[in-house]
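Standup notes, structure subgroup. Blocker cleared on the fe (ii) ion input:
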Amino acid sequence: MHLSRRGLQGIVMKPIGPLMREHRLIERCIPVLTSQVRRIRKEKTIDLFIIGTVVDFFRTYADRTHHGKEEEILFRSLATKALSPEHARVTAELMDEHRYARSVTRDLVAAKERYLQGDAASLAGVLSSLETLAGFYPKHIEKEDRHFFSILDYFTRQEQDAMLAEFSAFDRKMIHEKYAKVIESLEGLP
Ligand SMILES: [Fe+2]
Ligand SMILES: [Fe+2]
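Run returned:
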């Protein structure tokens, strides 16, 4: 029995296991987004703490940690396989979608900054970015869960075990990367 591919109950773990678990956490952020949309529409103000937390979640968890494993490990490994035209097309599409999610989060940050500087019109930008993220992630996740993760069939059991180990190593470095960035941003303050 290879420890890296067995979970607590001794169930054989596949590399999609951690990715799907992360999808479930990202999904839990969607009601937070929609409740902020409702709040902003009603009160015409932004809860800067919640928006800041949401931005950090999408940047550090959904993008760097989750899309990071997909792009730097799963997609990179797929690039070594002779993919069907359909799988090659969907892989490229998913990469585009990751870039799109990054740009929407950047727009959200920019609108939040304008709000901080007193630009009342920035509320519309915050609202539209929150609504876009709330619409984007469930569709992206469904595409991967239901229509893409069968691509694991391209990999042998040994290759899947190696990928799981790479995922773990990737996750281990995230907390250090995150707090190095936190300190760098604090050092940049006057
Ligand atoms: Fe993805
Ligand atoms: Fe994903």
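Discussed briefly. The chain is about 75% helix and 0% strand.
Next: hand off to the docking folks.
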